[in-house]
Write a structure and sequence with these properties.
This protein is α/β, with parallel strands linked by helices. It is built from 6 helices and 9 strands.
Length: about 220
């Protein structure tokens, strides 16, 4: 095991069997239906009040920059790209293979943007704001969107490394495509690390710091 990947001060609770977080699974297609929104809206309110983490269900469908020799690296390779605004894309950095990558990335950005807008409208509705587009309007016309594709190679000592170090999400929202075969994501709450369940055919949505601060301000 290369020493630069080994976490020297690993929290014992993270190494132990963590408790699975009761993250709600929300059917986005029902969230805005007049006859089916009640249960989904209740689950959305619960997520906003507690975890700031949601699993959305749909119907039918390079590593760290090294700054010091003592730096601990994530056990992952990744592609991280700015996809919006379009005129700020560094296309030269986008992979040329597979040939469909750019099209798939653009389509994924569009679909994830639809999830983000629907979620922000639902939150505004729950907070009984005067305008369902209140949060969307706060972003303006040139909000930044980034895409990250992560690869976690097989590790001989997974208990000694982090695929992604503990961190906060300073974003508005983060939309993650769930891989049915890759778990390990945890969320810290009240000093306890909770396992985020892997639910097939869902998108995971993390409510970012910017949105949580805005929600708390409006809920006062």
């Amino acid at each position: 095991m290369p020493i630069q990947y080994v976490v020297r001060e690993h929290n014992d609770q993270q190494l132990a069997a963590a408790v699975t977080a009761p993250v709600p699974v929300i059917d986005l297609s029902r969230l805005f239906e007049l006859d089916g929104a009640g249960d989904e809206a209740t689950k959305l309110r619960s997520a906003l009040d507690s975890w700031g983490l949601i699993l959305f269900q749909f119907e039918g469908y390079g590593n760290d920059r090294v700054r010091s020799p003592d730096q601990i690296l994530d056990w992952t390779d990744r592609v991280y790209l700015k996809v919006e605004p379009e005129d700020e894309r560094s296309i030269a950095l986008w992979p040329a293979h597979p040939e469909t990558f750019r099209m798939l990335c653009t389509n994924s950005r569009r679909n994830a943007g639809g999830v983000k807008d629907s979620l922000l409208r639902a939150m505004a509705k729950l907070l009984e704001l005067h305008n369902d587009d209140y949060f969307i309007d706060q972003l303006g016309d040139r909000a930044s969107t980034h895409a990250r594709c992560s690869y976690y190679p097989e590790c001989p000592r997974p208990e000694l490394v982090f695929g992604l170090k503990p961190h906060c999400n300073g974003t508005v929202v983060t939309v993650i495509m769930v891989d049915d075969t890759v778990g390990g994501l945890q969320v810290l709450r009240d000093g306890v690390w909770w396992d985020v369940p892997v639910v097939p055919h869902t998108l995971m949505v993390i409510i970012g710091d910017q949105t949580q601060m805005n929600i708390w301000e409006k809920a006062k």
